[in-house]
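Section 5.1 Outputs to date
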Amino acid sequence: MTSSDIADRLGISQTAVNKMISRASDFPEPVIERSNFRAWRRSEVEEWISRHRPDAGMR
């Protein structure tokens, strides 16, 4: 799951996703991290969303 996927999932911009991730000390660690690309396990991101953004529900 990329930051673009997370943005689509939450209905927010990629900039907002990046701010959210940088402020959330318990956001999952990326499984892939390159200079201009990060990806996370969908299951870990969905778990984080369910705890921190319950209003987001499943889309």
